[in-house]
Amino acid sequence: MNVLIPITTLFFLSVVLSCNQASGRSDLRQVNSAPPQQISKQDSDISREAAVRIAEENAKKAYGRLDQFTIIPCEQHAFWRIVFEPTPARSGNAGPEYVIDKRTGLIVGKRDLPLGDRSSSELPRLEKIDGEKAIAIARRDATMTYGSLSNYDLTACELTTTWRVIYSPRKGLNGGGPEYVVDKFSGTIREKKYYQ
User: Fold this and answer.
1) What are 109's strand-pairing partners?
2) Contact 182, 162 (CB under 8 A)
3) Parallel, antiparallel or unpaired: strands 94-101 and 107-114
4) How many CB atoms lie under 10 A from the CB of residue 145?
């Protein structure tokens, strides 16, 4: 009788486990021994606010006061682009742009961008170039150099006097795509950058 109880228990457990496996369910859970903060950091991207803070900390070292800039975050699939657009009171028509990796929070790129002639933006205009027109201008140039853009994701960010148009390669592709700064009032490409 004492031998029958363990055999019955084993039989019952094997039936339950085989039923769970057949239905695709399993009550067994994998235990991860990593500390919780490491798991959550790995599984989530940094927020817009965190990316802006990272860029601001770096910009303060180079520019001092930041009240002379309007800060515009622009989200891409794997990166945050944080553009510091000069206010009309600041001399010069360029501002820094930071590229921040969403996973690590590291600054992977920084450069000054020409951001358009602010004096022309203060004049009343009947028509400004909208996002679709800016994308069409950038696409025309990009297809001449890159051919098909089907393997690239498109991001367009509106700034005060320009559009920032970025083609970034889809996940799994190496390199980069073309990037543009298109003036909102004239439709001219103020800057373009190609990656190969």
Assistant:
1) 99
2) yes
3) antiparallel
4) 11
- Residue ranges and CATH numbers for the domains of the chain are 36-114 (3.10.450), 116-196 (3.10.450)
**Spatial CB neighbours of 127, under 8 Å, sequence gap ≥ 6:** none
Distance CA(4)–CA(9), nearest Å, equals 9
What contacts 23, CB < 8 A, 6 or more positions away?
A: none
DSSP strand pairing (179-183 vs 152-158): unpaired
Report pLDDT digits (tens) over 5-31: 444 444 443 433 334 334 333 332 222
Residue 158, CB-side half-sphere exposure with 13 Å CA sphere: 8
For residue 29, give the H/E element and its range.
none
Q: In terms of pTM, does the model score above 0.70?
A: no
CA distance 62 to 127: 36
